[in-house]
């Protein structure tokens, strides 16, 4: 279902992937610095989640400024929260690369505002860009260290923008419940020599879904 979401004096293009049964939880997904919401990994993940009963809303925001992307992401969260079509108990924020930085920033802001309504259930960072290529001295970890809700990282062990040891170091300092799933030998674009894109995406999609299920079940116990 295609929708346009008002954002200032512009609109954000977005697409709902809707499960057959009425969903209780949703995931908001956005893309990295290049591309848009039709980036194949996002389309694959959205279809997988919807087929497993989770509503997925993916959107395009072309700005390359993280603050701008974060504002757009907040707008989408509000839109879904106030939606009459889908009454959700909670959402997970997710993004790829730069999109995951924007998602992390939104989660941090909301946890600082302490909106105790628990609408945001967790954060999923696909290929989180912890540093620029070859610039490992400057880490983009400030948002991560302040987040309180559960966080899942899915990263390639050969990601040139996310050194394995550096991410493990940041994660060990995080106060939030967290998990890293390493895609063996994958680069920042999740390409792995000798594996098809579909094969890699199956691994990522299954990990993301089982993590969502763990976190939503935990809460029902």
Your description of this structure?
Helix content is 35%, strand content 23%. It has 221 residues and is α/β, with parallel strands linked by helices. The chain has a single domain (2-218), classed as Rossmann fold (3-Layer(aba) Sandwich). The model has no long low-confidence stretch (mean pLDDT 92).
Q: Helices, strands, pairings?
A:
Blueprint: E1 2-7, E2 10-17, E3 25-30, H1 40-51, E4 55-59, H2 66-81, E5 90-96, H3 98-112, E6 120-126, E7 151-156, H4 164-173, E8 178-183, H5 197-220
Parallel strand pairs: 3-4, 3-5, 5-6, 6-7, 7-8
Antiparallel strand pairs: 1-2, 2-4
Short description:
This is TEX30 protein. With 221 residues, this protein is an alpha/beta fold.
Kindly estimate the percentage of residues that lie in beta strands according to DSSP. Answer: 15-25%
Distance between the termini: 33 Å
CATH superfamily: Alpha/Beta hydrolase fold, catalytic domain
Shape descriptor: globular
Number of helices: 5
CATH domain topology: Rossmann fold
CATH architecture: 3-Layer(aba) Sandwich
**For the record, what CATH class applies?**
Alpha Beta
Protein name: TEX30 protein
InterPro entries: AB_hydrolase_fold, KANL3/Tex30_Abhydrolase, NSL3/Tex30
């Amino acid at each position: 279902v295609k929708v346009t979401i008002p954002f200032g004096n512009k609109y954000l293009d977005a697409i709902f992937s809707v499960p057959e049964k009425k969903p209780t939880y949703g995931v908001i997904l956005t893309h990295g610095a290049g591309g848009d919401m039709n980036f194949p990994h996002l389309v694959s993940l959205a279809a997988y989640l919807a087929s497993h009963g989770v509503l997925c809303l993916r959107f395009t925001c072309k700005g390359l400024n993280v603050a701008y992307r974060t504002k757009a992401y907040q707008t989408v969260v509000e839109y879904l929260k106030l939606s009459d079509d889908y009454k959700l108990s909670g959402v997970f924020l997710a993004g790829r690369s730069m999109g995951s930085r924007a998602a992390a920033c939104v989660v941090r802001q909301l946890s600082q505002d302490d909106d105790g309504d628990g609408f945001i259930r967790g954060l999923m960072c696909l290929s989180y860009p912890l540093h620029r290529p070859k610039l490992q001295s400057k880490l983009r970890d400030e948002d991560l260290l302040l987040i309180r809700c559960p966080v899942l990282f899915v990263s390639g062990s050969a990601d040139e923008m996310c050194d394995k040891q550096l991410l493990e170091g940041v994660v060990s300092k995080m106060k939030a419940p967290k998990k890293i799933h390493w895609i063996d030998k994958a680069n920042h674009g999740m390409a792995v020599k000798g594996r098809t894109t579909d094969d890699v995406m199956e691994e990522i999609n299954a990990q993301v879904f089982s993590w969502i299920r763990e976190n939503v079940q935990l809460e029902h116990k």
